[in-house]
């Protein structure tokens, strides 16, 4: 039987992805919707223009290929890639007993996430920023970029499915 060298590490990364997805779907998304709705509602038309493929009928395969996976891979590489390079390198930098390399990684994550959420996601920048910090946490925790990419893709897919289900019950 084939045994993967770090099977437990893989399992723990998938478990972290699943837990973060649950937090986003049932905790974060609900809170954002309830607390942020007065801001979201006026911006919904802007969001519809920015992300038309989420709202208008189309090919599910194209959505999965581009929006759910390709966009997630590229966005994670761009926004959280520099921090990943730092944490994955094993570089450690200690100042007076404090891990300065972790602080630098978080500074890179916050800067990349802030830039991406305000530059590329105008309608919902605060919620995108908070979601990006969660994906950044995954990068630091796992010292790998792929869990953040998978989690980001699942979040995009969840948004797509939620919009499609809600569109059944609401007027266009």
Structure description:
The protein has 172 residues and is an all-alpha fold. The protein has a domain of 101 residues. The protein is 81% helix and 2% strand. It has a two-stranded antiparallel sheet. A hairpin with a 2-residue loop joins strand 1 and strand 2. The protein is elongated and about 55 Å long. The N terminus is likely disordered.
The overall pLDDT, averaged over residues, is 77
Strand order of the largest sheet: 1-2
Task: Spell the H/E element sequence.
Answer: HHHHEEHHH
From the alpha-carbon coordinates, what is the Rg to the nearest angstrom? 18 Å
Strand content: under 5%
Describe the global form. Answer: elongated
State the end-to-end CA separation: 54 Å
Q: Could you give a short account of the major beta sheet?
A: 2 strands, antiparallel
Low-confidence stretches: 1-5
Give the % helix: over 70%
Helix-strand makeup class: mainly alpha
Number of strand elements = 2
Can you count the helices?
Answer: 7
Comma- or semicolon-separated keywords:
172 residues; mainly alpha; two-stranded antiparallel sheet; 7 helices
Helix-strand blueprint:
Layout: H1 7-50, H2 52-55, H3 60-79, H4 81-89, E1 94-95, E2 98-99, H5 100-120, H6 125-142, H7 146-169
Antiparallel strand pairs: 1-2
Helix pairs in contact: 1-6, 1-7, 3-7, 4-5, 5-6, 6-7
Short account of what is shown:
The protein is mainly α. It has 7 helices and 2 strands. The chain has a two-stranded antiparallel ribbon.
